[in-house]
Amino acid sequence: MIELMSIPRITLDWTEWIAWEEIKLDARHEGGVIVPNRVSGVYEVRHEDDEERLSIGRASDLRMRIKQGLVRGKVPHSTGDKIRSKEDISRIVIRWAATDRPAAVEEELHRRHVEQFGRLPKHTKHT
Predict the structure, then answer these.
(1) What is the model's pLDDT at position 32?
(2) Which CATH number covers residue 67?
(3) In what helix (H) or strand (E) does residue 42 lie, and over which residues does it extend?
(4) What is the rounded CA–CA span in Å between residue 66 and residue 44?
(5) Residue 109 resides in a domain
(6) Are 57 and 43 contacting, i.e. CB atoms less than 8 angstroms apart?
(7) How many domains does the structure of the chain reveal?
(8) Residue 56: which domain range?
């Protein structure tokens, strides 16, 4: 049996690339960046002067995944651990986009990255 699926188009409204150190700051008291709370989406991490991504990930809660896990290390995030220990975070920038279909978007972003660079992002194990 053959089944044809029509998957609706997904539009992403990416943030600007934001410095890791700015995201690390407390937005309430230190002038840091507000990452949306309880909003699902995707994010990308790269060096500021390089188009190749270090990581492409998805989140059911962007703030918890990016700010608390990836950047601050307050919740488990294996990619965040690797980036914090192996990369110069003063050169790293992050962007994100909200979507109600983060798994589908992450899969497509990984596919595009492999197409362009021949491999998954440096700190990404699998799709």
Answers:
(1) 85
(2) 3.40.1440.10
(3) strand 41-47
(4) 10
(5) yes
(6) yes
(7) 1
(8) 18-117
Instruction: Write 8-15 long-range contacts (CB < 8 A, 24+).
Output: 10/99, 10/101, 10/104, 10/105, 10/108, 12/42, 12/97, 12/99, 12/105, 13/97, 13/98, 14/95, 14/96, 14/97, 15/95, 15/96, 15/97
User: Quick one: pLDDT at residue 31?
Assistant: 81
The tens digit of pLDDT for each residue in 11-65 reads 999 999 999 999 999 888 888 899 999 999 999 999 999 999 999 999 999 999 9
In a domain, 23, yes or no: yes
Is residue 54 one of the residues assigned to a domain?
A: yes
| 7 is a domain residue | no
Task: Note the pLDDT of residue 21.
Answer: 95
Res. 127: pLDDT tops 80: no
How far is Cα 83 from Cα 76, in angstroms, rounded to an integer?
13
> Can you give the pTM of this predicted structure?
0.93
109-112 contacts at long range (C-beta below 8 A, 24 or more positions apart): 109/42, 109/44, 109/56, 110/56
